[in-house]
Structure formats: C-alpha cells, structure tokens
Amino acid sequence: MSPCSRRKMTENSHPGLYVHVPFCKTKCPYCDFTSVPSLSSIPDWLAGIKKEMGLYRDRLPPFDSLYLGGGTPSVLSAQDFSDLVRSLRRTFSFLDDVEFTVEINPDDVTSDQALLLRDLGVNRVSLGVQSLDDRDLGFLKRRHTADQALRAIETFKTQGFATLGLDLMYGLPGQRESSWMKTLERAVSCSPEHLSCYQLTIHESTPFGELRKTGKIPPLTEDKEGSFFLLTSAFLEEKGYIHYEVSNFAKGEENLCRHNLKYWKRTSSLGLGPSAHSYQDGVRWWNLRELQAYARALEQGKPPLAGEETLTQEQVYLETLLLGFRTREGVDAEALTARKGSREVLKHLQQAGVVEVVKGKVVPTVKGFLLADSLPLLFAE
Amino acid sequence: MMAHERPIMTPIRNFSIIAHIDHGKSTLADRLIQRAGLVEERLFRDQILDSMDLERERGITIKSHTITLPYVSRSGEAFALNLIDTPGHVDFSYEVSRALASCDGALLLVDASQGVQAQTLSNLYKAMEHDLTIVPVINKIDLPSADVARVKEQMDQELGLDPDQAILCSAKDGIGIEEILEAIVERIPEPKGRPENPLAALIFDARYDSFRGAIVSCRLFEGKVRPGDVIRFMSNQASYKVEEVGIFRLSREPRDQLVAGEVGYLISGVKTVSDTRIGDTITLHANPAPAPLPGFRDVKPVVFSSLYPISSEDYPSLSDALEKYKLNDAAFVYQKDSSAALGQGFRCGFLGLLHLEIVQERLEREYDQAFIMTVPSVQYRFTLQDGTTISVDNPQYYPDPITIASSEEPYIRASIIAPERYLGAIMKLCLERRGVHSRFNYPAPGRLEILFDMPLAEVIVDFYDKLKTVTQGYGSFDYELIGYRESKLVKLDILVNGEKVDALSLIVHSDRAREWAVQVCDRLQEEIPRHQFKIAIQGAIGGKIISRSTVNPFRKDVTAKCYGGDITRKRKLLEKQKKGKKKMKMVGSVMIPQSAFVAVLKTKND
C-alpha cells in the first residue's frame, strides 16, 4: 500500500479525499460508473469504507477537499450519511475551509436532507440535473422531471450552500441546438456557481452502447459535436462563466472545483470505496471494482487493491500532457519544446488557433479543447 | 579398369517446364516428383519446388530449383531426368535463358481454357533460341471451361507446333503424367559432350548456405569435375578448390564427380552468390576450355528505389538485413543513400518491378524490417551542355535543368496478347503510357498480339495491374529492353505544408508531370490522417505549383469526462498511439504514414 504521507506537503498541495458511493436506485442507460442498482448492500459498503479508512488513519496530512461521488450518494439515509461523515472526520483531519462536495440526484432532494447536508459541513452540491426538458429526461431514463430539478435547485439555493453545481448533458440523439440552448438558458437563469456540461458519451458496455450497435442511436457528426461544444462555451463565457476544463465552467475563480483540479494537476488524492483511484508521488493505485470483493478483502484485513502502478518519467510526462491540454492551465512550454520537432508543431498549432502561449504555458483555446485527446500525441516522441 | 574414368552412366534427360504464369507449372513439377517416388505420399506438400512462403502464396516461382528424378521407362530402362525449374516472370528473363541453355528439351505447358498467352510465346521463343526440343502439353483438361480443340488450333497457328504431338494432361488430377514422362525420354535428345574434354560447365543458379557459402547449380557440357579439382570462373578468372559436387534430390546428394551431360551442384569455398555470375562458365584451372560457353552477360538492374528505415534507430538493422539478403540474390544491388525528409537509407537496384516487390516482401517477412520504399525510377541519361553524359536513377541527382542539353530514357518493346475485343482498351492504355509505333499480329482468329514501343518508366508502376483490369484478366504481357530514346524529362517535387518531401520526388516526362502530380496529391490526401491544422500538399516543377490538395483539420476528438479513474486508461491509450506514431514519418510537423509512400504508386482503378 502506498502511504499517502511520504513527505510534508506544502500549503497549496493538500491532498483530496474521494469516497465512492456505488449505489443507484436505478441504473442510467448511459452510465459506465461502478454502481449497484440495489441499496441492500449499503451496510457492507459502509463497514468496508470504515475499515479502509483505518488503513490510512494518522498517516495523512489534512485534506482540503472531500468529494462524495457515485453512484448516487444521495440515496444514503440520513443516518448512514451522518455515520459516514462523522467517521471520516474522526479518522482524518481536514482544513477549516475544506471544499466538501456531494453529488445529489434531484429526485432525492428534500429540505430536511439539504439541512442535514449543510449541518454536516457540505458546502458544495453537484446536482445531476442532466436536462430541463422532460423529453430528454425520459430518453435518459432519469427518475426526475424538469420541474423536480428546478425545485431541487431552489431548495439548495434557499439553504445557502456556497457552491451549487449543475450537471447537464447535450448531444442526445435528435437533439437540436435550440433545445439544448433552452436547457442551458434555464439552468443559467438559476445562477448556479458551477456547471458541468457533458456531451453524451456512448460506452460500449451500457444499454445505450447496445442501441448504438444496432444503429438505434446514431453517432453525431463531428461538426455537430463541435458546434454544440463551441456554442456552449461561447454562451457560458458570455454569461460570466470561466471555461476552465473541457466540460467544466465556474462563475469566478472561487468556484472552480478544488477537488477535481487535483486530478487534472496531478496533486495527491486518496480514493475510498470500490473502484476508487488514489495517487501520490508518481504512484497510482486503485480498488477492486466489485462491492462484494472489496468488502471481503477488507473483512479479511487486506487492502482492497485491484492494481497499482509506479509511473516512469515518460508516463508522468504523457499524463501531464493529456491532462494539461484539457484545462486552461495548459502545459509548461519549456517541457514541451524540449522535445525534438515540437517547436514546429507548436508553431502550426498556434497558427491554426488551437493553442496559445501564455506566460510560459501552452494553453488550449476552445478549439484546442475539442482536440484535447489528440494534442498530446503531437508532443510525444 | 576404365570404369571410374567413363562409368556406365544412367541415360540423362535435361528439361524445363515453360508456361505462362498460372498455367500449372508448379503443380506439374510436383506430380513428376511424386511419380518419381522421391517423397512419401503422406509427406507431400503442394508445390514442393516453391519452397519460399512467398512463392507458395503468389503461386509463382521466384528462385529456380532443380531436381534429379529417377525414372524407369515403359521399356524398362532407367533414366535420370533433370528437371530444371525456371523463374516465371519477365524480370528474370536472363536467368530463364540460362536455365533453358542448360536443357535439351522443354515441356511447353498451355492452360486448356486460357490458351496461348504472352509468356507462352516469349518462353517458347527463348526455348527455340536454344534449339530445345519442345514437348507441347495441354494442362487443366479437367476444367469445365477447357477447350482442347481451340488450344490445339492455337498451337498449330500461333506456335507452329504439331498439335498431334500435344499431350493432354491434368496435373491436378494426375492425368497424363506417364505420357509426359515417356515423351521426355523418347523425344528429348540425350545430352552431348565428352567427359574427357576440358571442363565447361554453365552456371544457371546459385544460392547461399550459411554453412557452405555459395552453392552453384550448373550443367556440365564438357568434361568432368570432382572434389579437389581447382576450378576457374571464366568471366573473372577467379580460382577455387572444389569441396563437394553432387546432384539435387529434395536435398543435396554428394557424388564422387559430375560428368558431361549431368546437372548438379558444386561447392568450392565461394563465399557469397555475388561472387558467382549466372551464365558464367566453370572450367578447370589446369586444363581450361578453349572458350567460355556462349550467352554470358552481366545482369544490370533497371528499376531503382530507395529504402529508408521507419525510425532512424533501425538503420543498422536494415543495413544488416540488406547485407544478409544480398548473399542470396546476386541480381540485387544497393548502396547508401540519404534524404532530407527520411534520413539515412539505401538506394537499391532491381531487375524489374516484381523483383522489387519480392525483395520488399522478403525483407519485411523474413528479416522483420519496417521501412519506406520510394517511387521506383528507371535510369535516365542526361547529356549536359559541356558534352558529358550522366546516368541518373535517383531524382535527388537530377541535374540543374539549365545545364541539360538532352535527356534520354530506356524503352521496352511490350507484347500484349488478348482477345481482339479488348483492342480499344489496350490501345488507350498503351497510348496513355506513351506507347508508340504500334504493330499488330493476328496469331489466331479473335486473338490479337499488340506490340508497342514504350518507356520502361511507364510500365514499372502498376501497368500490369491496369492491363489486367482493362482486359478483365485476359491480357498477358511480356517485354524486352530495346535501348534509350530521347525524351523530355522534368523533376516533379512534392511539398507537404511547404516542405519538400525529397523521397516523393520523381523524374517524369513533361507531358505526364501534371497527371502524376495530381495523382500523388490525391493519394497523399487520402493517406495522410487529418491533423489539428490544415495540411497543404503540392506538386511542383521548379518553383511552379502544378497540383494541390488539402487535408482538412479535424474538429473534435475530446472525450467529455476525465477524472481520477480515467487517467491511467487514457495514458495507456496514448502510449499505444505513441507506438503507432513510430510507424509514421514526421515531415515538419506532419505525420505521414508509411503506407502513403506506397500508395502514391497506385493509380485508381476507375
């Protein structure tokens, strides 16, 4: 097991803590995250999480972010939720201004729950709205309606959470740009501090993946995908949101997701729960995917590891590229141009308006974000 | 006792099988070997003589093999039948002629449904030049489309052979094999020559063995040779001491000696096949023949292309592979070459386009090399203003146009045989390829032989494929070099995003330059993957752009999500792509796949 505390951490590189809550009431047909569509194993999971925490007890510096993701963390009962958060607080230390995010499904939202979250210290809510069009929601087989989503937003607004983030999805089959823009406009009119706008991605092993194979969900053309993306970016920037990662927008610097930035900047983070990934100092390790296997390992006092890798210098470089080109942080220009032939490539990319060089960093433009998956290869020898 | 001086020898017959490609030569050879009982039935693999995978796959014989078959005739007499296999392609016509020179007769094999084809004719002419006794054989009579009467008529009219002498056979089904063997012993004359004369042995093949060096295949016309003799190659006076002689069965069988009339091998400390010359005469140092056997000439490459390793670090490995390959292929020549776009490489010379393809495939398969091969070129001649003449087979050395007084390029005489109905299509193709001085023969009703004088440069790239297409597979092709003719030549350069890709440069006739330039630009447009930026591909003569195409940039490839659990997977994908990138050549900031350099050679089959 890779200890998360080999060196003293500087103030601005506190590690982040992630807890995976692998439960959903129903499984969405596009989702390839680890989740079980049954709530009956929650006790096993909670016991496992507590044991896993124990493996890291007293060995870690304070966290400045805590993120409960899933799955659907909001399916946890008030009691389980409190139990989990209290255990985390007992076992680990957190900075006073810790960013504490919970992913919530609109159909789970009640004022009581919102109050409980606030009392437990949650200051950032990521609400899985997906769409404000009932037809889209039906297609996505979400359990909520547009009205429910708007009420959920209202609930969190009135409870005074520091940051409210909305998850939205576009590029659904047959969706017009105008209908997506309507959802986006309605979402923005609720003044969320953060927006994640994901293009619908069809993963092979999902029900949507099956439909794609049989031709029932035809893929969008590249041009269409591109124009959805550019439209989204232009609209939100105009509304004062910073497009700081491919799919993420924040109203002001103070609303960037501190936790997710740790993944993109390759800062240390500890992940608890089935399939959760952790990273520190060039070592990444990840947990067993199946809840039962995960729980059993911990039951036997073993770390629930599924895999581990120690990155070579070249691998670190590749990750720096592939993550850097996804954010407005960009990639250190000096590191890039040290490679053979890369000055020439850089010149062409600048001319094509794909990247800019800003203060020693090669930063993707919005057009560059669209190409973020292929840019790294140009600088890899 | 004179027995060891003049042993009572088994009577010998030396023969070849000649045929147009695919008329069943290898299958017939297999049957003859099988009938001779050299291979147990259960161990028999089809086409024993085609030992290279490549030959088996392509169904053609690249390197000839020779085998001595024991045969007891119907009359009860035992014979030694030497089957001298010949390479089946025009690129190797000199090798074919030397193999035929080693024979006294030939089986002329004609496909019962396809009839007489271009190489049937050219091979027959070659055999006749060597005064060989021809045994006509009509093969594949089992095919539903077989038309024996028509083929017999063609034999009579086109070949001037007595159709009644033709043996009907199906090598596949083993029909007619006995009759063929009987005809070999009855019709083909016994070899002449006297063992007591000074040694005169014709080299018709040589192959390399990593333990023994060069193993020379030869036909003894006069004299005898045995281990311990000091022999001399008459072309260069090099002397060697004979280590071993013997005959070919399925493997080599050493003998005490080889005598006049026999066909066999000779091992004599010759290190590589390049030290032997096909067509050379071997004699004894102490008692040389008065004159070499006729027909020897130095084989010179006519098609040239450069090889570059995909990655510069593979240069030593490619160099090593070429050196090893060369051991077994005397016709292949190479020297160092370098390109601004592709780095260090080799300029290679080949006997023809098929030879080039064979070398390419063998280097890839047997020597595991990955490389880029440039557009093949012929050897051009330029007379400069100062009166000097230079030969150029590499576009890089195209002289400054101002200094050129006149230019010449090599021409061939192309012979195409096809049903008459394809005349229009063939004429069109040949005229497009700058064919001139066309002549026709009507060897048989409905059949046409078209003769054209054509630049060699026009047939080394995809001419044969094109011919097959326009004649729906019925056209057959053969050619011979007829010398140099004056021509208007220019150098075409290809630029990718403004950078000249010297490996794609080409010397071309000025009338054909634009067409070529357009084709190359189109091909590259298809082959170069889209980048993040626009790529301009241009064809230029001097500073003048004559063609242009564009690879549009792609717009989007990004995936929506990348969080903690996605990073490893994404990195692994990138690592995989990085490996794929190694198969690309970077020209400036453009990745050009290896396949693009090959694809520019292929015209569209429209």
The CATH fourth-level homologous superfamily of the largest domain in chain A = Aldolase class I
Q: Give helix % range of chain A.
A: 25-40%
Largest sheet of chain A: 9 strands, mixed
Radius of gyration of chain B: 27 Å
- Could you say what the CATH topology of the largest domain in chain A is called? TIM Barrel
Mean pLDDT of chain B: 87
Largest sheet, strands/sense/barrel of chain B: 8 strands, antiparallel
Number of domains of chain A: 2
CATH architecture of the largest domain in chain B: 3-Layer(aba) Sandwich
Number of helices of chain B: 13
Strand percentage of chain B lies at 25-35%
Q: Can you tell me the overall shape of chain A?
A: globular
Poorly predicted sequence stretches spanning 5 or more consecutive residues of chain B? 1-7, 58-63
**How would you classify the helix and strand content of chain B by structural class?**
alpha+beta
Largest interface: A-B, 55 and 30 residues
Question: What's the structural blueprint in terms of helices and strands?
Answer:
The complex is a heterodimer of chains A (381) and B (606).
Chain A: E1 16-21, H1 42-56, E2 63-70, H2 78-91, E3 94-104, H3 111-119, E4 124-130, H4 134-139, H5 146-159, E5 163-170, H6 177-189, E6 194-199, H7 207-213, H8 222-238, E7 242-245, E8 248-250, H9 258-264, E9 269-272, E10 277-280, E11 283-287, H10 291-299, E12 305-310, H11 313-324, E13 331-332, H12 333-337, H13 342-351, E14 355-358, E15 361-364, H14 366-370, H15 375-378
Parallel strand pairs in A: 1-2, 1-9, 2-3, 3-4, 4-5, 5-6
Antiparallel strand pairs in A: 6-8, 7-8, 10-11, 11-12, 13-15, 14-15
Chain B: E1 12-19, H1 25-35, H2 53-58, E2 66-72, E3 78-84, H3 93-101, E4 105-111, H4 118-129, E5 133-139, H5 148-159, E6 167-168, H6 177-187, E7 200-209, E8 213-222, E9 224-225, E10 230-233, E11 239-241, E12 244-248, E13 252-255, E14 258-259, E15 263-267, E16 281-284, E17 303-309, H7 315-327, E18 333-339, E19 343-350, H8 353-365, E20 371-373, E21 380-384, E22 389-392, E23 404-419, H9 423-432, E24 436-444, E25 447-455, H10 463-470, E26 476-487, E27 489-496, E28 499-500, E29 506-509, H11 510-527, E30 535-541, E31 544-551, H12 567-581, E32 584-587, E33 590-593, H13 594-599
